[in-house]
Amino acid sequence: VQLQAFGGGLVQAGGSLRLACRVSGTISAIDVLAWYRRAPGKQQELVAQITTSGSARGRTYYPDSVKGRFVISRNNAGNMVYLQMASLKSEDTAVYYCAAKFRGDAEYKYWGQGTQVTVSS
User: Fold this and answer.
1) Helix, strand, coil share of the chain (percent; to 5)
2) Smallest Cα–Cα separation from 116: which of 1, 2, 6?
3) Could you tell me the pLDDT band of residue 120, with boundaries at 50, 70 and 90?
4) N or C: which end of the chain has fewer CB within 10 A?
5) What contacts 48, CB < 8 A, 6 or more positions away?
6) 3-class SS at 36?
7) Each residue of 48-64: b (16+ CB within 10 Å) or e?
8) pLDDT score of 87
9) 3 pLDDT tier (thresholds 50, 70, 90)
10) Residues paired with residue 27 on neighbouring β-strands, in sequence order
11) 43 near 66, Cβ under 8 Å?
12) Each residue's pLDDT tens digit, 53-84
């Protein structure tokens, strides 16, 4: 599986931005897609995930830091995953990565290259 994230940029606080991630390869084996971020000097943080197979298909998860502001979605073909971000804050500044894992994987094994999001206050 290959992932390519894009759509980052510079946005003012309070603004919105949509990230996209192109997914290719054995898409049918993917169980969960996610967006992570890493801010300077901070640990990597999961910001959204969506289950893409099985009885839990469509289930999403967001940490409190982004809940109500970020929305993860996927297109019907399964080859694109999006992160719609609204009400952006300076603390959302980070490099954002998309990731995927197969059914049975304990950890995310497939990662995109990251896209920079900078929120100016």
Assistant:
1) 5, 50, 40
2) 6
3) very high
4) C
5) 34, 35, 60, 61, 62, 66, 70, 71, 72, 83
6) strand
7) bbbbbeeeeeeeeebee
8) 98
9) very high
10) none
11) no
12) 999 999 999 999 999 999 999 999 999 999 99
SS3 94: strand
* Position 52, amino acid: T
Beta carbons of 101 and 6 less than 8 angstroms apart: no
Integer-rounded Cα Rg, in Å, for the chain is 14
Q: The tokens of 68 are what?
A: 């109500």
CA torsion sign, 1 to 68 to 18 to 46?
negative
In the predicted model, what is the mean pLDDT of residues 101-109?
Answer: 93
Token code pair at residue 8 = 């980052």
Model confidence pLDDT, tens digit, residues 23-58: 999 999 999 999 999 999 999 999 999 999 999 999
In contact, 4 and 22? CB cutoff 8 Å: yes
Q: Tokens 């940029």: give the residue.
A: 9
